[in-house]
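yo

u said u wanted the structure for the complex thing, so here. seqs first:
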Amino acid sequence: MRRFLLTRLAQAALQLFAVGSIVFLLVRLIPGDPARAALGEGATEEQVAQTRETMHLDDSFVSQYFGFWGRLFQGDLGTSLISSRPVMQDLPDRLGNSLELVLVSLLIAVTLGVLLGRVAATRADKPADHALVAGSIFGISLPVFVIGTLLLMVFAFLVPVLPPQRFTTPWEDPVTHLQILVLPVVTLTAASCAVITRMTRSAMLETLSADHVRTARSKGLAEQRVIRDHALRTALLPVASATTVELTTLIGSTVLVETIFGWPGMSSLLMSAVGQRDYPVIQAVVLAVAAIVILVNLVGDLVVRALDPRAEEA
Amino acid sequence: MSTAAEAAGEKAAAAGPVLTVERLSVDFRVAGEWTPAVRDVSFTVGRGEVVALVGESGSGKSVSSMSVLGLVAGSARHRGSIRFHDTELLGLGHEALRSIRGKRIAMIFQEPMTALNPVYTVGRQIAEAIRCHEQVSRAGARARAIELLTKVGIPEPERRVDSYPHQLSGGQRQRAMIAMAISGNPEVIIADEPTTALDVTVQAEILDLLRGLQQDLGSAVLIITHDMGVVADLADRVVVMKQGEVVEEAPVGRLFAAPRHEYTRRLLAAVPKPPPPPATPPLPGEAAPVPAAESQAEADAAAEKRAALRVRDLEVEYPGRLGRKGFKAVHGVSLTIGKGEVLGLVGESGSGKSTIGRAVVGLARATGGSVEVCGTDVTGLSGRRLRAFRPTYSMVFQDPGASLNPRWSIGASIAAPLLVNRAADRTAAHARVAELLEQVELPARWASRFPHELSGGQRQRVGIARALALEPELLIADEPTSALDVSVQATVLRLFRELQDRMGFACLFISHDLGVVELLAHEVAVLRNGRLVEHGPAREVLARPRTDYTRRLVAAAPVPDPVQQAERRRLWREMAAA
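structre next:
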């Protein structure tokens, strides 16, 4: 396990390094002078020169590159060209807001997906199963922005049970926060939950007819325990791997959902930064998202390994 | 026959049968119609008695035994009666059935790797069986699990109790399975092909264990098997099934001495007889591990030109994953097969016998040594040259169901090597397919049929026809009959022998079954852990093995004769003890 963890951590570090380098290069590959582009048409030569200095654009390429990593290691992600605020001041909050959406959605999607998948598998070819399979087709085939927009139209405007409100942090007003959390989370959950339901159903259909489940029955275990401790438990292995992949999709969908519901997460930060060519911010957001995806995959792999004792030796 | 047993049972109620199956029929719903799998099956199992239910695949023996505990999968319909003492098991409520499952009637399954849950330790799985019938603490159940593992002869039970199934060997896994089955001191143990997935020496150990436990616990055993040797070894009484019906029931001695039913006679005749038990161990001086190389060197030199296959110091190592040591499957093996000769390569699973076969055809890369087919070293050949050389040899695989493309007609499968190697155009290939099908005793007009329309034995004939399409000099047959029923195996082996006689190809015949090898092979090579243990003329090696390993291998194979088998078992025990 330790060896596995070490190799995976080393891999993660390498991936982050690669992403960082690519981001660094991308900013410099943009045609024209980033400083001038950032400041816009009407900037004076002095302003440009000053910006070039703050962006370290006059240093040699190599020293820029090492400077970039050096500052990054000190936790300095640069300063926004628009607001002149250090990126580190805004980023954590935005990141937190996005992660809240992702993690809450994931938790619900996994719990509900596994539960529904189990129901569908144990009632295979019965009405409950048919309903769940049909329902999951909607979740899988409808794009996030369609579901999001529909939900917004119905529950915010047609039947305004969850009207749009100003974003409030949970410590300011937990109730309002929960209210505004509902629609984005439901939108994000729909697709992931459908995928996990399907995965669990098919994996369990397989394990339900597995030899070891028959053995469990022959021991005299109660049917509920046979299903939970044996059929479902072994079905979780493929489900866990699929969930890791699903989580990456979920992070992608969050960008859309945040925009639809005006959720002040990473995506609105990124959108405005791209619109205003705020390179340090773009750079920081891309790096942060990449770090999360890498971390998520690492955790996913660890969970899969923890679930399957055979992975230890393989 | 069962009515006689019942009558006897009624007279002495105390000694009556523990398990009574009466006019049991099981139907499965296939495409909306009820298809019978078992018809009017009746038999009894007396207290402490070992009853064997034998038959070939599709005979309904497994379905009958699974019905006892209501474990038949899918949509099955049961009729008739299954009684445990006086309790009717068919239609019994879930809770009542649960109190019998595992506690009073326990099961042992065929393949312990899949029958045990891979994500739990064996200790946990045994403890679970104990705790679902008794109020025992976790620690108490664990202690009992260790006790049970000790009882079934697993070494270091305190450590093994925390092992996962994949960390145990096949034999140990089956022992753990047995430990679980006896955890509730059941009155009846149903063992469904308990040794089929195991090597012959491990099988002998497990059968020994089952017999010992059965005597200790006084449990009745219903053993389901297709292996007449196992029957002769363990059973008191035998029930023979064919196509869902009981055709004969008799005490084991009578069944083997005077089988009454035509089918039983055929079944017994089909079993390839393992070689007779090896004579007393040779004197110490005789026990040379490998035949003297020098005297053979001359003969070899003469045979050099005529050798169909010459393997010299072959080494095969499977590479390990990044930063890990690889696994060496074959250590310096040398073999020669003369033209037109059959060499039987025997050994237990993991001995490297299949790897050698794969290395010869180039499916596994030799990491050392050389493989010469008809004088050409194939290990160093480039892809294109190797392809040009491939028609010289071909391969017959173990599972004909998996090695024929299900979407191709069998004619297309047989013609493929001809067309791929441009040995024939379409019309010529067509004619050749017809010819080949007739050679393997299948009607030529079957060329347009698909594999699923054929039985297992017929499919393997197609596999042989395909291998022979290019008239190879050398055939590599990797366990070609081990997936087949005995009676089917017998006909395929006869066909194989006739073809070999007629066409004169050389053959590397890989098998774990000494009886099959003795029937076919001129020479035998015995492998153990990737090393050649013994090599020589078949009769000599099997009748007078030089090494303990081969001797144990020969003695472990059960013979379908209760009297001989008892003697064999005694001999095997002595060897195992030594």
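Residues 113-185 of chain B form one domain. Chain B has three domains: 4-104+186-265, 113-185, 296-404+472-557.
cya
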